[in-house]
Amino acid sequence: MEHLHAHLSHHWNAAHQPRIVTVPCKYRAGRVLGHGTYAVVKEMVQIDTGEHFAGKMINKKHMQGREAAIPNEINILKRLSRRHANVVTLHDYFETPHNMYLVTELCTGGELFERICQEAAFTEQDAARIMRQIVSGVEFLHANGVVHRDLKTENCLFRTSDRDSTVAITDFGLSRIINSESNYALTTQCGTPGYMAPEVLQRCGHGRAVDMWAVGVITYFILSGATPFERASAAAEMAAVVKCEYAFEPVEHWCQVSPAAQHFIASLLVYSPDRRMTAKQALKHPWLQGEQRMVMP
Q1: Quick check: is 293 in a domain?
Q2: Catalytic residue among 48, 92, 126, 150
C-alpha cells in the first residue's frame, strides 16, 4: 500500500477558502476501485484503526476553473451523510499539495452496472427491491434540496456482495442544492449521455425531475440489460432522447415483464418534467409496492 504524505487541514471558511495547516497523514492508499473524469477512487486504510474506506482522489490541476465543485460536493455529503441507508456515508476529507481526498464508506459489492452485466436481466422481484432503494434515496435527496444530476448504474453501489445487499447512491460531484421547487432552476448541461433528460440536452432549465428520468432509464436497463435510447451514434441517441423515442422491445422479452413495471418506466420517461412522476409518487407506485401482476390502465 502507498503511504499518503502529510496533508493539509481539511477545513474551509465561509468563503470556501482552505485554512492551510499541515497535519500527519492518517491513511494508506491501496488498490484502484474506479476512475472518473477528474478523479480516481482508491481503497484506503486508516492507519490507527485499520478500517477500510473508499478515497476519491481529485487532482487539483485537472479541476482548475472548477475549484468550487469540491467544497460543493463536501457540503452536500455533510448535509446528507449518516441520515439515510441508501446514500453513501462521508467519513473524512482532506487535501495534499496536489490532490483533494473525500473518504467515504467502502462498498464492497460493486456497481449496479457490473451486476446488470453479470446477470443480463434481473427478476422483477429483485429489480423492484433495488429500485425501491434507489428511489427512496432520491426522495431523501430531493426532500433535502439536493439534485444529484448524474444518477446512473455506475453511481449505485452494493454495500456487500450478497444478493440482497443494500444499495447506496454515490458520487455527488455534479449535484446541486436548490431551494426552488421549479423543474427549470438549473441551467448547466451536465450528466452522462444515455441518462440525461431532454430538458438538460435542450438547455431549457432543469431541476429534481432529471433524477427521475434517470430512474426510468435505470429501471429499463435493469429489466432488459439494455438502455432505452441506445443508438448507433451519440447524435442519434440524443435525438431519440429529445423526441422521447423508445419502445419496449424486443417484444419477446418485454411481454414477460409485468404491465406495472412498464407503466412505472413510462411514467418516468416523459418529455415534460412537470408530468414526470416525483420520487414521492414513485414510491407509491404499484410496481414498487410489490404488485407486479396488477393490470395497469
Answers
A1: no
A2: 150
Statement to judge: residues 99 and 183 lie in one domain: no
Sorting pLDDT into bands at 50, 70 and 90, what band is 276?
very high
Residue in 135, 292, 160 with CA at minimum distance from that of residue 219? 135
- Tell me whether residue 44 is in a domain: yes
Name every residue whose Cβ is closer than 8 Å to that of residue 140 and which is 6 or more positions away in sequence.
Answer: 80, 83, 84, 86, 87
Q: Which residues are annotated as a binding site for ATP?
A: 56
Q: What is the DSSP letter of 178?
A: -
- 172: number of Cβ within 10 Å: 27
The three state secondary structure string of 245-287 is CCCCCCHHHHCCCCHHHHHHHHCCCCCCHHHCCCHHHHHCCCC
Q: How many CA atoms lie within 13 A of 271 on its CB side?
A: 10
> What are the distances in angstroms from CA 197 to CA 192, 194, 251, 267?
10, 9, 25, 14
At residue 10, the 3 state secondary structure works out as coil
CA distances to 38, 56, 66 from 17, rounded to whole Å, are 20, 20, 14
Report pTM: 0.89
At 29, which amino acid appears?
A: A
The domain of 267 spans 112-283
Q: Is 171 a catalytic residue?
A: no
Q: Are 138 and 212 in contact (CB under 8 A)?
A: yes
How open is the CA angle 146-14-21, to the nearest 5 degrees?
115
Over residues 130-166, the pLDDT tens digits come to 999 999 999 999 999 999 999 999 999 999 999 999 9
- 168-177, pLDDT tens digit by residue? 999 998 999 9
Please indicate, yes or no, if residue 296 is contained in any of the structural domains: no
- Residue numbers belonging to the annotated binding site: 56
